[in-house]
Description:
The chain has 16 helices and 18 strands.
Amino acid sequence: MxxxxxxxxxxxGAVVVGGGPAGAGLLLAARGAGLxxxxxxxxxxxxxxxxxxxxxELGGYAIRSDSHAESFxxxxxxxxxxxxxxxxxxxxxxxxxxxxxxxxxxxxAAAFLAGAFEELRGALAASGRDPFLTGLxxxxxxxxxxxxxxxxxxxxxxGGEIELDAASLVLATGxxxxxxxxxxxxxxxxxxxxxxxxxxxxxxxxxxxxxxxAAAERLAxxxxxxxxxxxxxxxxxxxxxxxxxxxxxxxxxxxxxxxxHRRPLRLTYASEAAALAEGYAAFGxxxxxxxxxxxxxxxxxxxxxxxxxxxxxxxxxxxxxxxxRLHRLGxxxxxxxxxxxxxxxxxxxxLGYQPRALPLFDDDGESIALHAETAAxxxxxxxxxxxxxxxxxxxxxxxxxxxxxxxPLRGTHGxxxxxxxxxxxxxxxxxxxxxxxxxxLAARLDDAPARMPDLAAAEHA
Length: 461
Ligand SMILES: Cc1cc2nc3c(=O)[nH]c(=O)nc-3n(C[C@H](O)[C@H](O)[C@H](O)COP(=O)(O)OP(=O)(O)OC[C@H]3O[C@@H](n4cnc5c(N)ncnc54)[C@H](O)[C@@H]3O)c2cc1C
């Protein structure tokens, strides 16, 4: 991209760092809420280091979605301005529509999102309002003495630097599994590394097309390969499913794959009656959503992972599935877990994703430590999507959205017993994204009272 030599003026209403499903998705959330024109008028810029927007890293996982296909196209299909229909009419779009009500390959979902955002971007560009800056890497952001944030960006591959001034900042930078965690987190007597050096792989690497092929190659020569998967998340069970059902060259014997998990594994059901009818009774009143009657709508496994567990537990006439073993890790010494890990040909670490965020600095140049950095699994944001500093107080004017941001749903949605994180496009393209958009607009209203009539009108459009 061509980088302008001067900071953009006048200052922007908001800079969003990351143009993946969450960051770019703010546009869809705004469109759904009738606030897209107001958001674009702030104005807003969305910085993406890649060439394309909308899909982020979703296409890098060689598995099917845990959410239904419509969670990827609901906000595109919804009525709004500008109209969006072309992406749903392509072969990929039609495949998405065919998959409604069930899972879809994440590679297909990613291709669809890339096409849908290309369509949206084209429509906005036609009226001179394309908010995306691609090929640009945000390096850090510094609080400005007069309020707002100055975001320092560098063109990918060289070519210049740019600073963008904005009233608000949104971090939509995604998340990653941090390899350092393998050296620290104790699993059955000690960290996985260096104990099992040479045979440990991160779940995100295993789920990539190249990683899945490499694992298959590594295990193919073994008569009875053994894999230990550490973690109780969707990623952990998705890895088991990938190895057992989608790796044709691999032949696992009884207990060939073990998932070592700390918390109990749960299944989602449409109702208590549906769960009980197929023999699933491991839930209580706190595990049922009062609004929908669904059992474990948030904590429960869905899609392919759910089907695999139903086979293991012989629910609803499914199974048997003797190749997969589930081992609940104890808090104290666990000799059986140690044996499983020691005997495994491959250990898959699914210990969780941590937000990437962005280095933030105060106006005096002092680094702002984030709450998400204080402990593994600590949330990046609060219930208003405000990014939290290490002391737990919101960093003024900075919001976070997307994978592992830790947006809390407890007490607002789903089952009262839910304690985990909510990660899903339906939130970001829906009410969570729209709430951030409203806050960005409100911050600008504080900034520039003259704009108030326009924005107030847009809010009710
Ligand atoms: C294995 C797995 C399966 C999942 N399945 C589902 C599912 O079925 N349904 C569902 O709703 N959700 C699912 N999710 C959760 C989530 O929807 C996806 O992870 C989604 O890709 C997250 O979008 P994101 O925008 O937060 O992050 P990403 O997809 O990582 O996108 C972040 C973007 O920001 C850019 N970026 C990052 N840092 C910078 C920077 N400093 N400067 C410029 N650009 C930057 C990156 O290039 C990238 O394009 C899944 C997650 C995982 C890990």
